[in-house]
Amino acid sequence: MTHLSMDLLLSLREPDSEPGTATAREHLNQCPECQAELHRLHQRVARLKALPTLRPSRDRWPETGARFRAERLRRRNRQIGFAALAAAASVVLAVSVTPKRAVVETVGSGVNEISQAMERSRTLENALNDYNPEGRVLDGRTAQVAQALEDRIAALDRQLEMTELAPEQPKDDELLQLWRERVGLLDALVDVHVTHASNAGL
Amino acid sequence: MESLLANAESVVARARTGDPDALAALYRAFEVPVYNLARRICRTTEDAEDVLQETFFEVCRSISRYREEGSLWGWIRTIAASKALMRIRRNKYRDTDELHDEVVGRRQEDTHLRMDLEAALERLSETSRAVVWLHDVEGYTHEEIATMMGKTPSFSKSQLARAHTRLRRWLGEEVVV
Predict the structure, then answer these.
(1) CA-CA distance, B153 to A142, in Å (whole number)?
(2) Which of B64, B70, B77 is nearest to B29 (CA)?
(3) B103-134 residue pLDDT tens
(4) Which residue of A has its CA nearest to B167?
(5) Residue A176 CB: number of other CB atoms within 10 A?
(6) At what angle do helices B72-91 and B20-41 cross, to 10 degrees?
(7) How far, in Å, CA of A82 to CA of A158, rounded?
């Protein structure tokens, strides 16, 4: 007698029966050996499911989180480039369509200051990238300070994103304040990495 | 599995804004099941740890695209499985069970080499082991496995049958007629 192949035994376990399984099922009903084989298959799968859960030997979150934060910084850096261009364009537009000198000057100076803060932010991030902090070893205290600064920058970035995504036009002074704060934190972060100054900015 | 994360909805909402505490909470909640899946598929602990890191890096990047149509664990698990499969494709290890068959398999065919399930599973090729784990333990269908592997459902079915035939032999479950 030809017994059921492993393929057929496995197909009998599938929820949707395939064509051809009816004959196999008929054979199974009459064959104790194939019934035993199917039982062993069920048992084997049950034992696989019952294997102990394996756990990582070390915590990979610090590296994963740091990598994600670094990517966010890079992305923000790229956005700054576009935003600075857009800000510059809006100044040109404001100057060309508004006849009143005083208004132009007020609008222009606010946007200008934001552009400058963005540019400074970008310069600092480039300096940080060139320094490649991820590839260097920091002592525990310095690493802690750097981490705290990165977290504050990430929080500030979220705030900037929310402000930029808000339906109403963000106020210049509000944006300027956020960008200045970002520059200050980045400045401190560069300082921490380059000089290992563990009291910087905090 | 969702119960691993208390207040899942609020954690996901905060994680979408990039909140580092919420992202860390996601990692802490699903670190062990993701590692277990990766380790069962990959050959080494180092590979499994890399898959763990790759998976959560992707989770952090893509959490804003998670639409809550399926379970959170289902979404993370699919990312983990894809990363583990990518890893084994990249490694292209020589299949040890095939090596065994070539070198000593024939000699030992009738001797019912007995080993425990852990050792037998470890001895399967990475592809076979991935199919066994994803199908029999994680509950993926052959169609889903085929999509993740870039193969056909028939490939997944034949890998599973081949793996079970080997496991049966290595576990000494073959009936001597």
Answers:
(1) 53
(2) B77
(3) 444 444 434 455 799 999 999 999 999 999 99
(4) A44
(5) 17
(6) 50
(7) 18
Tokens of A62: 């610090």
- For A121-133, the pLDDT digits (tens) are 888 888 887 777 6
- A49 vs B49, B121, B137: nearest CB: B137
Quick check: B27 and A47 CB within 8 A?
no
Please check whether residue B28 is in contact with residue A73, taking contact to mean a CB–CB distance below 8 angstroms.
no
Give the model's pLDDT for residue B23: 94
Measure the CA–CA gap between A42 and A40, rounded to whole angstroms: 5
ipTM of the complex: 0.84
Within an 8 Å CB–CB cutoff, is residue B115 touching chain A? no
Higher-pLDDT residue of A102 and A64 is: A64
Residues B32, A61: C-beta atoms closer than 8 Å = no
Least confident of A144-148, B55-59, B142-146: A144-148
Average confidence (pLDDT) over B73-90:
94
In sequence order, which residues have a C-beta less than 8 Å from that of residue B168 and are 6 or more positions away? Answer: A6, A40, A44, B174
Residue A42 pLDDT > 60 = yes
Q: Which of A51, A67, A157 sits opposite B57 (nearest CB)?
A: A67
